[in-house]
Structures are given as C-alpha cells and as structure tokens.
Amino acid sequence: MFVDEREWESRAKCRTVDPEELFVEGAAQKRAKAVCGGCPVSTECLACALDNRIEHGIWGGMTERERRSLLRRRPMVTSWRVLLETAHTEHALDRPVSAEAANRDRTA
C-alpha cells in the first residue's frame, strides 16, 4: 500500500480538481470532502497530512479541525503512515473471503 512516500499523489482522485476547491471553509468543506469519496489513496493522503502536520485543506477526507482533533486524541503516534499501513494490513487479513473468491482460488 505505502510504496513510496508520495507516489500516491499520481493516483489521487483530486488530481483533476482545482486545488482551490480543497482549501475552503465552512459549509464548502462538505463538498470538498466528497471529492475524497472512493479515492484509492485517501489513507496515504491522510497519513501524509497527519505526519507532516498540514494545517489547511481537506486531506484524506478530513478537515483541518478533524485532523487536529485526531492528533490531540492520539499524541503518542509517531508515524501515522506506519499506523495506518498496519491497520490496513490487519483489516485486510481479518476480512472474510467471499464465496466467489474462495471458489476461484480452489479452481486455480
């Protein structure tokens, strides 16, 4: 998942959006966060913003206020990149295998 520190940027859903749309305030933030929906690299984006203490804009589907709150709640985290990568890996291992995937594996 986290191959290169910033390689994810080229796959970000927001790369085709005017950057000004992601650096908004108030009610416009809800629309900006919607850009992150379904983005394949939102976790990497969020980790980058948290690790680098980026103060402005929507990153990984979170506003600056949401990120500050998360940082206050978890002050002992030294690398959000490592934490999120580990959580992603563990979640992937815990997910049940679909019947279709199990059948595909059996016949391969």
Which H/E pattern describes the elements?
Answer: HHHHH
N/C terminus separation: 25 Å
Helix content: 40-55%
Average pLDDT over all residues: 84
Shape: globular
Output the structural class.
mainly alpha
Explained architecture:
With about 110 residues, this protein is mainly alpha-helical. Helices cover about 50% and strands about 0% of the residues. It is globular, with a radius of gyration of 16 Å. The relative contact order is 0.13.
Keywords:
single chain, 108 residues, mainly alpha, globular, disordered C terminus
In brief:
The chain is mainly alpha-helical and 108 residues long.
Which secondary structure elements does this structure contain, and how are they paired or packed?
Blueprint: H1 28-36, H2 42-51, H3 64-73, H4 80-94, H5 99-107
